[in-house]
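User: Fold this, then the next.

Assistant: Folding the first:
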Amino acid sequence: MSQILRKEKLAPDIFRMRLSAPLIAASRHPGQFVILRATPDGERIPLTIADACSEAGWIEVIVQVAGAGTMRLSRLRQGDSVADLVGPLGQPTRIKRYGRCIGIAGGVGIAPLYPIAQALKAAGNSVTIILGARSRDKIILRSEIEGWADEVLLATEDGSAGRKGLVSDVFLDLARQGRTFERAVVIGPAAMMRAVSKLTLGQGIPTVVSLNPIMIDGTGLCGGCRVEVDGKIKFACVDGPEFEAEGIDWEPFMRRLRSYQDFERQTRERESCRLMNA
């Protein structure tokens, strides 16, 4: 069991949770994740390690309520404990001195981009970040990322912050200005990653994306998180979650994601009914 040291709401249906996890905090790297269960009978939830402190022995995860498991997790309070926590899992981000780097994230994809931005800056890179969301109140970790990046640009669909439009619009603005980059990191919804990585690759920028398929055991045994990269089957939980965008076969990946949408909606509705009748 791992105790919740702090919990705060960042945006509608999005919250940050600090967990006591000394061993994980001491060994994690940017790009890695944990799997936890809110309750002994709950589902296994993979979450990026958004921040950590090895000295104090804590990690932070950011959760968007989507299904029954994240709904149960969202109801836990400071001082409560999660039933299970395992990690760090997955391969770390490949960090080195590339030169000019650009990170582009949408929605809760901002969470995994934060530690990557920290590491890229610490390695001596110039770091430009584009953050996107539907509206200003859904942009998370803005101040934290501004503390590390050389430049932070915003895009909101309703125009309430930054440029009205999408993160791809902001990137195209930079391209029209003649801005060039040696490395791009793109994280967010699958459709966004596919569209934006097509643009960055079209500009000749080596691009990495973080894939978010359904994960169950986190060890590569179940096969639920399989993706096709460079014509080969990979497992996001052990081979990823980050992959070079150029080799990804996006269509089967996105089709698998869509196949679970109805199930997530149904489990959330059942959990809501259960809580109302409790």
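Now the next one, as you asked:
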Amino acid sequence: MKIRGTAARTTRAASTRAVAVTAVAALALTACSGDPEADGGDGGEGGGGLTVWVQEDLPDRVAATQAIVDDFTEATGTEVELVSVGEDQFAQLITSAAAAGDLPDVIGGVSLPQVRTLSANELLDTDAVGQLLETLDPSTFSDKAVELTQDGDAQLAIPSESWTQMLYYRTDLFEAAGLEAPTSYDAILAAAQALDGEGMAGFVGATAPGDAFTEQTFEHIALGNDCQLVDDDGEVQLDSPQCVAALDFYGDLVTQYSVPGAQDVDTTRAAYFAGQAAMFVWSTFVLDEMAGLREDALPTCPECAADPAYLAKNTGVVTAIEGPDGAAPAQFGEITSWTITAGADTEAAQSFVEYMLTDGYEPWIAIAPEGKVPVRTGTPEEPTLYSDLWAELPVGVDTKAPLSDFYSPEVLDAVATGPEDLARWGITQGQGDLLGATQGEHPVAEAVSEVANGTDPEQAAQAAAEAVRAIAESLQ
């Protein structure tokens, strides 16, 4: 069995989980009554209870999840052992559990590459998952979310929520300069050139090598130009003309119109929050911070002193970006899912996942609405029930308020519908395992960093492609 690296962390996680991992590890393996290597699932039908792993490892989120689990137990009588597993621990722990024949019954918060890796290793009960999706009604889910969690006719997981990467831009500056929204490569470059000047970068984007956020940012830019990791035959395509052109475009942005030095998840946000960048790329996890609801990441722009939500009120979003060689605009993002493992207590596992997508769905989304955009929009009777609730849920850390207090309906609609334009390298081509392994070694981030430091885009693309080909060979 080969289980390699999982998907890159979300951008919020990249900036918070690293410092919390030591403390959270103890919580993950003890406070929830679950060392997944010692006390795994019930190992078959009718075990009398469920073991559920969930990839939420921040203490407040674990506590909120436990409250939902307790409500399920009270409603059904089924006991649930909740085990919190850090995303960086997941691959190792699931490998150990599978080898010991001690898998959990249900896994939540599973990323798209992780779903494909679990499937490739025959660890999923796709019949149980497919039956449950039919019970819930596929028409109540985002079509794209369902598509990305399928493999042919097999439904691998039940999609739950998403976060997406977006291009954020200063609407006040764009309007003053008479610029169109930065929805395409040409429009982005034109705006960056027009707005770049003393104390203001036209654009800021990630360039740090060895950084998942750099890869996420570039994939977001590249997808719209039809730059793909692999083609339908699984052949690596990072040195294709489309990818070279995307690297060339991104290189122009970060070398001519950005701030100096390697940029990462924290510095890109800091530049925009300080009013020193007209555009930046980040995930939906930034929405509460931009509204001034998180004290360790407050906007510091000159106008923000009088109004901490100034940037939120004067920021537009572009979800899908269009490149000159792309067939259609596209954007990077992640869909996290619930899935049922092979050998699980099928009936109890289906009941639990159904609960998490019905009675437990609102409190689950409410844990972090800015990064848990529902991909189940409603029910057959109320088709927009959950999407409507989402816009009114309070967000924030130190202060809480709904996103609708700060953002226009147009922005919120773009965030809510973003998953429909979501694309991911390797997933639909059946190469999710390769994607996960590639993200563990960061050849794309290295290529972006090289281009940012003057390397020819074609040379950098070739080096990245060869690195991915070597990774693919190691998986065979």
